[in-house]
């Protein structure tokens, strides 16, 4: 038993509910500080990212992009036989990789001394959790909630039960010949790009007038133009109902028109996994978004209960959950308190073309800093000159007019995610436009454009 400073005794120092990225990191770091840790996961260790999110999805993105590579090869003198894609081969290898990674997560937790409990756990009081399957109760000095979020369907749409989400999409046994993807966020955009590239007749439908709300307006426009060439892009449109028919699914749209598809993938939002968690028992009320409110150090209103990751809805990204989990463990068990800065987050959308972003867009920068300088470059990448592919790269720098600090970088084009990871270091360090200007260009590359833009195209 663990004895606290107030003479209370507990079974463990830390009980983590949820085996995703944030919970796993927190458990490992806390155990490294000597804490006795148990972690409960009712599904598979690894969480959304590893099991049914960014990792398997990125593997599918890679699969889809080979189609462009095969087409582009001819411009460089290669004679490539007509390619044939086998969904079953990709699925089997993708699923095997996910299983391999899940094993690594479990092994690493074990090596760190963390006990994994393959059950659902619910909170009974400020220091007690109950394991649902066995009924066992475990007391803990600290409880960490790291249960993530789940995709949601539109419950008011008749026939919504016939749709699949970003969870079930990984279970498809065959490549849909016709698929409708509903949504305008990064999940919808990425999956629409995947299926279009793999050969499905893909429709991406969004109720708004542009994709990727919150991104820079020029990036949104450029992506819309690129996607309109790759698939059937329908903006300012809604789904009114679904019904099962002999040929698949009959979809009635907001304008009264109909279409038939084999699958409808809804990607219109995610919601924190708080149902049945036992929050009422300890007086934790969720916020308007359904998330658990926490302070800068991930502590809830109950001092012994913390929460990290998507369940807090601060920034629903795997690297953020990992950082929050690490910061929690350092603060609570390592006597090294620090809080995650959610204000500057490099991120990527693995669409085709890809998007990488760090910092402010034009609108938010202008609201924050007032006078800004905007540097913009749009060009045809060198590879496209021989392949003949109709594509453009778009790059933007947003600069604070008063300090000359670069406060936003936006890239649309091949390997934008890789580029923005490196650029994110400079922006996080507070690099100025002058710092960018004096950086020697690596020629010939796409990324060199970021250090060769000299004349602003907009200010104000």
Structural write-up:
- It is a single chain.
- With 460 residues, this protein is of the alpha/beta class.
- The chain folds into 3 domains: 2-151 and 271-333, FAD/NAD(P)-binding domain; 160-268, 3-Layer(bba) Sandwich (FAD/NAD(P)-binding domain); 347-459, 2-Layer Sandwich (Enolase-like, domain 1), CATH 3.30.390.
- Helices cover 31% and strands 24% of the residues.
- It has 12 helices and 24 strands.
- It is globular, with a radius of gyration of 24 Å.
- The mean pLDDT is 94.
Question: Topology, pairings included?
Answer:
Blueprint: E1 2-3, E2 9-10, E3 12-17, H1 21-32, E4 37-40, H2 47-52, H3 54-73, H4 87-112, E5 115-117, E6 121-125, E7 128-131, E8 137-145, E9 149-151, E10 178-182, H5 186-198, E11 201-205, H6 217-230, E12 232-234, E13 239-245, E14 248-253, E15 258-261, E16 263-266, E17 270-272, H7 279-282, E18 305-307, H8 318-333, E19 347-349, E20 355-359, H9 362-369, E21 372-379, H10 382-387, E22 393-400, E23 406-412, H11 416-428, H12 433-437, E24 458-459
Parallel strand pairs: 3-4, 3-8, 4-5, 8-18, 10-11, 10-16, 11-12
Antiparallel strand pairs: 1-2, 6-7, 7-8, 9-17, 13-14, 14-15, 19-20, 20-23, 21-22, 21-24, 22-23
Q: Keyphrases for this structure?
A:
460 residues, alpha/beta, FAD/NAD(P)-binding domain, Enolase-like, domain 1, 3 domains, seven-stranded mixed β-sheet, six-stranded antiparallel β-sheet, 12 helices, 24 strands, 31% helix, globular
């Amino acid at each position: 038993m663990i004895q606290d400073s107030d003479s209370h005794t507990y079974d463990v120092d830390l009980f983590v509910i949820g085996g995703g990225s944030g919970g796993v990191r927190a458990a490992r770091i806390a155990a490294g500080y000597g804490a006795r840790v148990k972690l409960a996961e009712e599904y598979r260790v690894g969480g959304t990212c590893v099991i049914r999110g960014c990792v398997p999805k990125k593997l599918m993105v890679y699969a889809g992009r080979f189609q462009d590579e095969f087409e582009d090869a001819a411009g460089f003198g290669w004679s490539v036989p007509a390619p044939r894609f086998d969904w079953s081969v990709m699925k089997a290898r993708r699923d095997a990789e996910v299983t391999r990674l899940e094993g690594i997560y479990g092994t690493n937790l074990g090596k760190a001394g963390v006990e994994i409990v393959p059950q659902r756990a619910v909170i009974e009081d400020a220091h007690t959790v109950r394991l649902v399957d066995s009924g066992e109760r475990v007391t803990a000095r600290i409880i960490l909630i790291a249960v993530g979020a789940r995709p949601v369907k539109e419950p008011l749409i008749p026939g919504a039960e016939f749709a699949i989400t970003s969870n079930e999409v990984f279970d498809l046994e065959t490549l849909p010949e016709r698929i409708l993807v509903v949504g305008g966020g990064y999940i919808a955009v990425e999956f629409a790009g995947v299926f279009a590239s793999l050969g499905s007749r893909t429709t991406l439908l969004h109720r708004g007038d542009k994709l990727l709300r919150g991104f820079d307006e020029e990036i949104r426009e450029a992506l819309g133009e690129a996607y309109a060439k790759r698939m059937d892009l329908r903006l300012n449109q809604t789904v009114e109902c679904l019904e099962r028919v002999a040929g698949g699914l009959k979809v009635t749209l907001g304008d009264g028109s109909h279409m038939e598809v084999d699958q409808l993938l809804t990607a219109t939002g995610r919601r924190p996994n708080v149902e049945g968690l036992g929050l009422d028992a300890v007086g934790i009320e969720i916020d308007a978004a359904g998330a658990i409110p926490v302070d800068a150090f991930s502590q809830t209103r109950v001092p012994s209960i913390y929460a990290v990751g998507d369940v807090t809805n601060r920034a629903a990204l795997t690297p953020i959950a990992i950082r929050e989990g690490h910061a929690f463990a350092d603060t609570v068990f390592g006597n090294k308190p620090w809080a995650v800065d959610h204000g500057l987050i490099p991120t990527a959308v693995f669409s085709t073309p890809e998007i990488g972003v760090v910092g402010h867009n034009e609108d938010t920068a202008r609201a924050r800093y007032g006078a800004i300088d905007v540097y913009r470059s749009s060009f045809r990448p060198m590879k496209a000159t021989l392949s003949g592919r109709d594509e453009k790269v778009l790059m933007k720098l947003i600069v604070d007019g008063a300090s000359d600090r670069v406060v936003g970088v936006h890239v649309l084009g091949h390997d934008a995610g890789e580029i923005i990871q490196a650029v994110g270091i400079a922006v996080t360090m507070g690099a100025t436009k002058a710092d960018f200007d004096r950086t020697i260009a690596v020629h010939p590359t796409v990324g060199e454009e970021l250090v060769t833009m000299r004349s602003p195209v907009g200010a104000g």
